[in-house]
Structures are given as C-alpha cells and as structure tokens.
Specification:
The chain has 301 residues and is of the alpha/beta class. Helix content is 37%, strand content 21%. It has nine helices and seven strands, in the order H-H-E-H-E-H-E-E-H-E-H-H-E-H-H-E. Helix 1 crosses helix 8.
Length: 301
C-alpha cells in the first residue's frame, strides 16, 4: 500500500512481515516510488532550499531510507559541493539510485549503503553534516531510539532533518458526483487504521507520541525547527499526476477494501476504470494538493 497520508508519501524500505496486509514489497514498488517522488519534486525542492539556508556547504549528506534515490539526487543538485550517500535496506532500489545519479551527472560524489536501519549507519566513514530521513523513521519500531542513533551519526553542528506529518493529499472535490460525498475523508480514517496496524507489527514497536520536536530534543539535539511545504497541482493535471492518483486509489482499494461499504467500493471502481469518463484517468476536475512537514534539529558543537 502506498500510504499517501500525513504519515508518509513515499514509503521507504524496512522489515516485512508475513501474512499481513501491511506487507510492503519495496522493490516491486520501485516505479511507483520514483514517479511519486518526481511528481512531488517541487515540494522537495522547496524543502531543500529551506534547509540550504541553515546547512551551508555540507561535506556529507546522508539520505536515510532513500528508496530509488530521487530525493538523494536532488540533494546532489542543490548542494553541488557535497558528497551524498543513499542508505536503504533494498539493494534493487539502491541500484536505481546509483543509475539515476549516473544519468544526472552526479555519480562522482554519490554513493550507496545497503543495510537495515539504524544499525547500518555505524558503517559511515565519517559523520554527516546533514542527515535526512524522509518518511522512513515511522517504519522503524523504536522511533526514539532511531532518532538518537541518527543524531549520533552527525558531526558536531550537523543537522538532522526528518520528513514526518503534514496533511492527507487530496485529488477530488468533497462531492465529485459519484456515491456519497466525503469518500476521501473516509479513506483517510481507514488509512489511519492501516498505519496503526503497520506500526504495531514492526519489530520492537514502541508507542510514541508524535511530538517530533520533543523527540529530537530527547535525542540530545538543539534548536528544533518545523516547516511545512505545499504541493499544489490544480486541474487539469498531467498524465503523471493522473497515474499517481490512480496508483494511490488502487492501492487503497486493495488494502482496505474489506472495510469499505458497497457504495464506496463501487465509487472506487468507477474512479479506477479507464473507460469511465468519471475516472481519474479522464475527469477534468482532478487535482493534487498535499502538505508535508519537515522537522530539523542540530547536534551541539
């Protein structure tokens, strides 16, 4: 399931769990992860520009839970003097990240590191000046311990930036002419249920209030800051945006179908039918509107 919510927009690799609808095959999702991150590139570029005002001339940037490396390569473009290291548990996704870096001409200062988080970070050659965790932290069972481990991998004065929270993405008006109004709000509630189950099934799962600045402070970091960034793609949208909406609604239908009533399942089926003029593939009122939140803090010098 692509958990497109304020929890995560681009899920990253972590452990998988058998016999559960929260299983995620990250390598199988590679194409979706790439196209989604590319669609959200304007939002990420705004976030990285904001980070660049605080983190000047970093030597090493580590993208923790990098997936196929779309954001990792953006870091290489925004910080031309930095070495960028993409870290993930999925070798196939890191192969894509390496290929992307080569295509974009940044391979000479781009590396990858495969292994499970946060322990694999012990293999860093030297501390990071900027460590970015984009929608990867919530896939680790003990988030407080993971933040502490992330902070320990920073150079003195280095910055930890986590992308967690925001608002659910929206694609359609509240009443879009099929079924009962408010379908997306009902899907949000089911996503919350799915997310909680996913968190509960993680190895070493610890329930934690999601006060990210407080958790950053508890990890020994200082000067916590928070800012949210908007992706606003008004109608009519591009084919890539339509494909993204179709992928999100399709994964929702597959993952929460048992909890939907007959009318809502029928509405989703129509939204996903390419032959239906009311589908996300053809309807003129489709848009993409989402907000993502970045929290930063600094390791004391």
């Amino acid at each position: 399931m692509a958990h497109d919510h304020h929890h995560t927009d681009t899920p990253k690799h972590t452990h998988t769990h058998s016999h559960s609808n929260t299983d995620i095959d990250w390598a199988e999702m590679a194409g979706h992860l790439e196209s989604q991150a590319e669609l959200f590139a304007p939002l990420y570029e705004s976030a990285l520009s904001w980070l660049g005002k605080e983190v000047t001339e970093p030597g090493l940037i580590v993208d923790v839970g990098s997936g196929p490396g779309v954001v990792s390569c953006l870091f290489a473009e925004v910080f031309p003097g930095a070495r960028v290291l993409a870290v993930d548990g999925s070798e196939p996704l890191l192969d894509r990240a390496r290929a992307r870096a080569l295509r974009q001409g940044v391979a000479d200062r781009f590396g990858v590191l495969a292994g499970e988080l946060p322990g694999v970070l012990d293999e860093l050659d030297y501390p990071a000046d900027l460590l970015w965790a984009g929608h990867s932290l919530h896939h680790l069972g003990d988030q407080r311990a993971a933040l502490t481990a992330f902070g320990e991998r920073l150079a003195p004065g280095g910055t930890l930036a986590i992308l967690e929270g925001g608002l659910p993405s929206r694609f359609l008006p509240r009443d879009f002419g099929i079924g009962r109004p408010g379908l997306q709000a009902r899907l949000d509630a089911l996503q919350e249920k799915w997310f909680e189950q996913m968190r509960t099934e993680l190895p070493g799962s610890v329930t934690e209030a999601e006060d990210w600045p407080a958790l950053l402070s508890s990890a020994g970091l200082k000067y916590a800051r928070t800012r949210s960034f908007l992706l606003d793609l008004p109608a009519p949208v591009s084919d890539r945006a339509r494909a993204y909406a179709a992928e999100i609604f399709s994964r929702l239908r597959d993952s929460v179908a048992d909890d939907l009533d007959t009318d809502d399942r029928a509405a989703l089926d129509r939204l996903l039918d390419p032959a239906d003029p009311a589908s996300v593939h053809r309807r003129p009122d489709l848009f993409v509107l989402g907000a993502r939140t970045v929290h930063t803090a600094v390791r004391p010098a």
